[in-house]
Specification:
10-stranded mixed beta sheet, globular, Aminopeptidase, 4 helices
Length: 202
């Protein structure tokens, strides 16, 4: 069963009930109705399982890397080199509006039952794309057996820090390659709470 959402007063609201399904590569899921100047109410935001190597994904990852390089002096590609497409613990979602690729995000394992959110990008900021991708990543991560998600962003990336805080992520000590990096801000979120209950209170 899919989950249907609408943007009402700037917030993502669930319109029907049901549990999101676990996907194989290429399957589609979770239509979202977006109401904004760039995404008319008649448009549908569709999330689908994909791969960082997919042709439709490459322009999004290139745009993300270009933005990071301009703003922070590093494109972030070096921290996203390991990927196992046939491993269900590696999750990559692509967001499309009609035939246009407009967003993406990934989860990969970082420790036992802990996933790491990577390569989050929305082509049109402020339209709810990132929120939709993140929410479905969390749902798919639960299905894959993850109990917690970690992530890293730049401390100077105040928009990203605020975004993750709004979605229930809390600052945690830096982990892995980010230990000792004063310009890194690491976050975590438990997935053990009931996702459906969390959605119903949005």
């Amino acid at each position: 069963m899919v989950l249907l959402f609408a943007f009402i007063n700037g917030k993502l609201k669930k319109l029907d009930t049901g549990q999101p399904c676990c996907l194989s590569s290429g399957q589609t899921l979770s239509p979202f109705i977006a109401n904004s100047p760039l995404m008319p109410v008649t448009a549908t935001l569709l999330l689908e399982s994909s791969s960082p190597a997919a042709a439709a994904v490459q322009p999004l990852l290139d745009a993300l890397s270009a933005q990071l390089a301009v703003r922070f002096g590093s494109d972030g590609r070096a921290s996203f080199t390991e990927w196992k497409q046939d491993d269900p613990c590696y999750i990559f979602l692509l967001a499309r509006q009609d035939d246009e690729a407009v967003g993406c995000g990934a989860v990969r394992p970082v420790a036992a039952r802990i996933g790491e959110v990577k390569r989050m990008f929305a082509k049109y900021p402020g339209q709810g794309i990132g929120a939709a991708v993140l929410r479905q990543l969390e749902a798919e991560a639960q299905k894959a057996g993850y109990a917690e998600l970690w992530l890293e962003t730049r401390l100077a990336n105040t928009e990203a820090c605020r975004f993750y805080a709004r979605h229930g992520y809390q600052r945690r000590p830096n982990y892995g390659q980010y230990i000792g990096r004063e310009n890194s801000a690491c976050f975590s979120k438990s997935l053990t709470s009931n996702l459906a209950a969390e959605l119903s209170h949005e």
